[in-house]
Design brief:
18% of the residues lie in helices and 32% in strands. The protein contains 16 helices and 48 strands. The chain is of the alpha+beta class. The chain has an 8-stranded parallel beta sheet with strand order 9-8-7-6-5-4-11-10. Strands 12-13-14-19-16-17 form a 6-stranded antiparallel beta sheet, with helices on one face.
């Protein structure tokens, strides 16, 4: 019979009757006042098949580079599924399977992590105790060894491996007691488990909302937005601001834009026991984004002792789920804006945000730490400070009586702040503007260079004029362009639809992230990317169209379906059966196109010997029929030899293709830049019967600008598609939130039934040209009211590079000078 449980100080006292009544004190590794620990875990770097020693060591070198280059400290590196346990099974470090993946055990990984001051963690299940006393002892001994020999800091127990049997609750509790004798601060994450009255007190956390955060797979937008992470930014803190929960962290694998806004809320708003917490493939970020990643980790570490205390702020004054954390003299305030227009909040510098009474004038410095750091000024107790938050972004504001180093008069990002090296800062402005920059609270003997040239004014304490160059913007780079109006379905509707689906792809979400971020110049980043994409399972699953053009018949491009996990099934991702599309990258003369597969099973739904009808085009407008016979090796002759061709489409996509190529004049065509897709529907079955349009012209186009075609409301999956004409030339929308359907590495893209936003990048030389935005809709979308916004990515439009050298020795910890 279950008795009572009460929170007693920092320990949980539990009264149970299990064989005999007893009181036992359980400290579950942390309490509400325990400072946060930063963590990475490897889910979707590997899936349920598990990680390997080699890949893990490569990943650790990535974090070693972040530590050496930017001072970023990772507290916990956690192996995820398949390391010891797996889906619906329990394993052992003595098994052949484990030794195959970790031929040297955990030893080499433990030693490398220890050198980085990083501890290990592992995913698993709560049971595995077998049916005999000997099996129960072996399981417990193995888990205790992880803590005693390898100093593990975290166990993540998940229902995917299985639930804990009632009869094994006592064995589980005894095991956890022994483990914490070795690692008293061991964190136990409870992912959807019923551990019973005996096991539950040993758990540190529960999974917030039971929700994982893989963008557009587990977590997607529920409203239109200029990026994919509005749904992530809308997550609310746990009830009572409890910190002993886990929000699954920030997924750095798919749809990467605005990841930093999400991480700010994870680390400073919810500020849970594990924060900052990331997972997936952070090596897919752009090279210029790693300083920001490290800066967020470093700031969270600097303030972690006071982040444990938080208070909710009035929603009518500070917006949704605003939180202030800190003490009476320093507060860290997180704000967010989930609308298309900027919002200004007014911070009152008194007890409303948790500040204590201060009598001196100018007592509080108010500084924005994200996005783009900036000193907003000095203010007295009780004053009100306006703070603008950009659309669909988060903001971190520090209010403090402290006087530490900073820059006045300009927005900036700290690129590097590590001991014994110059401090590097990126100054940020708009083209055609100047800023009067001054160092605040700088130590004596500072030397400054701007883009490599000495700046004596800064060193002497005076202001320096910084010119950002370029032509000043005449119009706001982010603004509402107008509502789209209903119109007849245009004559070129098919060409517009094809422009969008040919510009998009069905590759794995991680491949899309790789294309988004571009090549890297950093060896550790390149090695981690290679370790991920070159793992055999990624190749075997056929998730990347480049496999069709690599000259290797052992690699292939599959039509997704077979890799969907049964525990979270989704419909087949192919839209209306899917179609195969091939883009040769440019118009070129073609005699034949060939498709290579393995056998008749691989080309289904095609059947060997049947006649197949496809179409080719040079411009997506005029299509020519091609006929050929289905076979594992298919030759598609053009209507005439040397015909100019760029595009091929076949209404039924083969399930499995290994190579695709073309020939002209007896030679193979170069396949550089070729692309293919296999999940988008043919045009005719889409059944578009509605259309909306908006015509406009932009006098100027800022760098990184794009159109957001927002279609709010609920309608049906894939019921609308957007495209653009530029002086009559058709341009597709290569990205959409929620994401286009994909051949995914883990679970399928979550099929959304509305609130789509299509993104169309703008070229600078389109300024002054006629832009006709068109939306096509099926019958289910008859009542939508689409609108168009001019958007711009977060990258700075104009920057200068400031380097500061200090005479003093570097501090023991990055940021110890308060920078």
């Amino acid at each position: 019979m279950l008795g009572a449980s009460v929170l007693w100080g920092s320990a949980l006292w539990v009264c149970v009757s299990w064989g005999q009544a007893a009181w036992a004190e359980v400290f579950p590794g942390a309490d509400e006042t325990t400072p946060a620990r930063s963590q990475y875990f490897s889910w979707i770097n590997n899936t349920n098949e598990g990680p390997t020693e080699a890949q893990t060591l490569v990943n650790l070198e990535f974090f070693a580079w972040l530590q050496a280059e930017y001072g970023m400290q990772l507290d916990i590196y956690a192996f995820d599924a398949g390391t010891i346990d797996g889906k619906r099974w329990y394993g052992s470090t003595d098994s052949d399977r484990f030794r195959g993946q970790f031929p040297n055990g955990f030893g080499p990984i433990y030693q490398r992590a220890k050198g980085l001051r990083t501890r290990l963690g592992v995913w698993g299940g709560p049971d595995g105790f077998g049916t005999t006393p000997e099996e129960e002892r072996r399981r417990a001994d193995m888990m205790v060894e992880l803590c005693g020999t390898y100093d593990f800091a975290l166990f993540k127990f998940d229902s995917v491996a299985g639930q804990l049997r009632d009869s094994k609750q006592r064995a589980f509790a005894d095991m956890m007691v022994r483990c914490r004798e070795k690692s008293p601060d061991l964190i136990l994450l409870n992912h959807r488990l019923n551990l019973g009255p005996v096991g539950t007190p040993h758990s540190t956390t529960f999974l917030l909302g039971g929700q994982e955060t893989y963008i557009d797979v587990h977590l997607r937008n529920r409203q239109t937005a200029p990026h994919h992470r509005a749904g992530a930014l809308a997550r609310t803190p746990p009830e009572g601001l409890t910190r002993l929960t886990e929000d699954h962290g920030v997924c750095l694998s798919s749809a990467l834009d605005s990841w930093d806004d999400e991480l700010i809320l994870q680390a400073f708003n919810r500020a849970l026991i594990l924060s900052p917490q990331i997972y997936g493939n952070p090596w897919l970020l752009r090279d210029d984004e790693y300083p920001k990643l490290a800066r967020i980790f470093n700031l969270a570490r600097r303030y972690r002792d006071i982040l444990v205390t938080g208070m909710a702020l009035p929603g009518d004054r500070y917006g949704p789920s605003a939180i202030s954390r800190g003490d009476g003299s320093t507060r860290l305030i997180t704000l967010r804006n989930l609308s298309w227009e900027p919002v200004t909040y007014r911070l009152r510098l008194d007890g409303e945000i948790g500040l204590g009474p201060v009598t001196s004038d100018g007592a509080f410095e108010v500084r924005r730490l994200h996005p783009k750091e900036r000193i907003l000024g000095d203010f007295s107790h009780g004053q009100t400070v306006p703070v603008e938050v950009a659309p669909f972004r988060s903001s971190l504001i520090r209010v403090t009586t402290r006087r530490d180093f900073g820059l006045e008069g300009v927005a900036y990002e700290v690129v590097r702040d590590v001991p014994d090296r110059p401090m590097e800062i990126q100054l940020i402005g708009r083209p055609g503007t100047t800023a009067e920059v001054r160092l605040r609270n700088a130590p004596d003997g500072v030397r400054a260079t701007l883009d490599g040239e000495p700046v004596l004014e800064l060193a002497s304490g005076g202001p320096a004029t910084v010119d950002f160059g370029g032509e000043a913007w005449r119009e706001a780079p982010r603004r509402f362009l107008g509502r789209m109006v209903p119109t007849d379905v245009p004559d070129d509707a098919e060409a517009l639809y094809e422009a969008t689906v040919f510009s998009a792809d069905n590759n794995a979400l991680e491949v899309r992230s790789l294309h988004r971020s571009g090549p890297t110049r950093i060896p550790e980043v390149r090695a981690a990317r290679d370790a991920y994409f070159d793992q055999q399972l990624f190749k075997d699953r056929g998730l990347w169209d480049r496999n069709l053009f690599d000259g290797d018949p052992a690699t292939a491009f599959f039509r997704m379906g077979r890799w969907t996990y049964n525990w979270n099934p989704h419909p087949n991702p192919a839209i209306l059966g899917g179609a195969f599309r091939l883009d040769l990258g440019a118009v070129q003369p073609v005699d034949t196109i060939y498709l290579e597969s393995r056998d008749e099973e691989s080309i289904r739904p095609l059947k060997t010997g049947e006649g197949i009808v496809g179409q080719v085009s040079a411009d997506l407008s005029t299509w020519h029929e091609v006929r050929f016979k289905a076979a594992p090796s298919m030759e598609i002759p053009m209507p005439s030899p040397g015909m100019p061709v760029r595009y091929l489409r076949i209404a039924e996509a083969p399930a499995w293709l290994s190579e695709v190529g073309a020939r002209h004049g007896g030679r193979e065509l170069d396949r550089t830049g070729w692309r293919a897709s296999n999940l988008f529907a043919p045009f005719a079955p889409m059944g578009f019967v509605h259309a909306w349009s908006l015509s406009t012209s932009l006098g100027e186009i800022a760098p990184d600008a794009y159109l957001s075609v927002a279609v709010p409301g609920e309608y049906a999956a894939e019921a609308v598609y957007a495209a653009l004409r530029v002086d009559g030339e058709r341009v597709g929308a290569p990205d959409r939130a929620p994401s286009y359907t994909a051949n995914t590495w883990e679970l399928q893209v979550d099929p959304a039934d509305g609130n789509y936003t299509y993104y169309i990048p703008l070229e600078r030389d389109w300024a002054g040209k006629s832009l006709d935005i068109v939306l096509l809709g099926t019958e289910q979308a008859s009542k939508v009211e689409p609108e168009v916004w001019l958007s711009r990515g977060p990258s700075p439009a104009a920057t200068r590079h400031l380097m500061l050298t200090f005479e003093e020795d570097g501090p023991a910890d990055p940021g110890a000078r308060g920078r």
